[in-house]
Amino acid sequence: MTGCTRRLPLIALLLGIAFAVPTQAEEAYDPWPGLVQDIFSNRPMNDGSAVIGIEMPYRAEDAAIVPVTLRSKLSPADSRRIRSITLVIDRNPAPMAAKFELGPDANVTEISTRVRVNNYTDVHAVAELSDGQLYVSKVYVKASGGCSAPAAKNVEEAKNRLGQMRYRQFAREDGPASRLREAQIMIGHPNNSGLQMDQVTQLYIPAFFINQLKLTQDDSPVLSMEGGISISEDPNLRFTYVSNGAKRFRAEAKDTDGHVFRNEWDVEKPGT
User: Fold this and answer.
1) What is the C-alpha separation between 89 and 60, in angstroms, rounded?
2) CA-wise closest residue to 190 among 101, 45, 64
3) Whether the Cβ atoms of residue 213 and residue 229 lie closer than 8 Å to each other
4) Cα-Cα end-to-end distance for the chain
5) Is the pTM of this model over 0.85?
6) What is the DSSP string of 191-223?
7) 40-46: long-range contacts at Cβ-Cβ below 8 A with a sequence spacing of 24 or more?
8) CA distance 141 to 120
9) How many Å apart are CA 163 and CA 159, to the nearest integer?
10) Distant-in-sequence, close-in-space partners of 33: CB < 8 Å, separation ≥ 6
11) What would the pLDDT profile of 114-130 be if each residue is shown by its tens digit?
């Protein structure tokens, strides 16, 4: 065996170590303490395991459309209510994915949407309760490249569907006499992250996304969302709420270019 041949395993080992160290250092870095300071002004965080649940796949099939469900775990006997839920994807370029404000009388107990995940990361759900305290739960998600993934629709198709809204309701086992509703709002919008590249020009597509959404039954607030670049293309919210007997359900959305989109539906005849 020549000297060069004998050195090959050693060189491979050293190269492996050299490449492994940054990776391990990156994985060891925890951005969460800094995010608590930046997003929540270092307010104390309480264990939210009995307050707020967060469900996401451990390994995402598509990093650009990762499903997430936020669910209240408060006991019916608990006199407190959830005022807001902030969804934080720790290692995304803009970690605060969305903040949901819950209507005081709507009793929203579940919210589902789809998000982009850019790196293997912890994802935190922070609930602010009516007692003014913050409660946090988290999950770990294996996904990467979601924020830079190309748009699923071409530019012309996305432009033609811009701001189109649909409202759907779903039958529940609670029966027709129940005031509990399950509904879904879908909005046509590219929700460009600013990290996607035009496949023709090879230039980055400017960020362009829905940053505000308000849902009401008549004029009573149900749910509002402050959104960021992590919300997937064609934003989609599915949620539960308690009907106040309103005949009309209304939605108003705004995007980062100043467009305002409005629509309303007969509660008894949802649809386009």
Assistant:
1) 14
2) 64
3) no
4) 75
5) yes
6) -B-S--B-TTT--BPPPB-EEEEEEEETTEEEE
7) 40/86, 40/126, 40/134, 43/134, 44/133, 44/134, 45/126, 45/134, 45/135, 45/136, 46/133, 46/134, 46/135, 46/136
8) 6
9) 9
10) none
11) 999 999 999 999 999 99
Encoded tokens for 119: 């790196």
Return the percentage of the chain with pLDDT > 70, whole number.
87
How is residue 20 written in tokens? 């492994």
Contact 146/117 with Cβ under 8 angstroms? yes
User: At residue 4, what are phi and psi to the nearest 5 degrees?
Assistant: -65, -40
Structure tokens that stand for 39 in this block: 């997003």
Q: Compute the distance between CA of residue 57 and CA of residue 193 in angstroms, rounded to an integer.
A: 22
So what's the pLDDT on residue 174?
Answer: 65
Query: Percent helix, strand, coil in the chain (nearest 5)?
Result: 15, 40, 45
Position 271 scores a pLDDT of 62
CA distance 246 to 234: 27
pLDDT at 185 over 80: yes
Q: Is the pLDDT of residue 18 over 90?
A: no
Please tell me the distance from the alpha carbon of residue 234 to that of residue 213, in angstroms, as a whole number: 13
pLDDT at 11: 37
- Amino acid residing at 58: Y
User: How far is 258 from 239, CA to CA, in rounded Å?
Assistant: 26
- Measured CA to CA, the distance from residue 190 to residue 208 in angstroms comes to 7
**Euclidean distance between CA atoms 126 and 133, whole angstroms:** 10
Separation of alpha carbons 120 and 6, rounded Å: 37
Whether pLDDT at 132 is above 80? yes
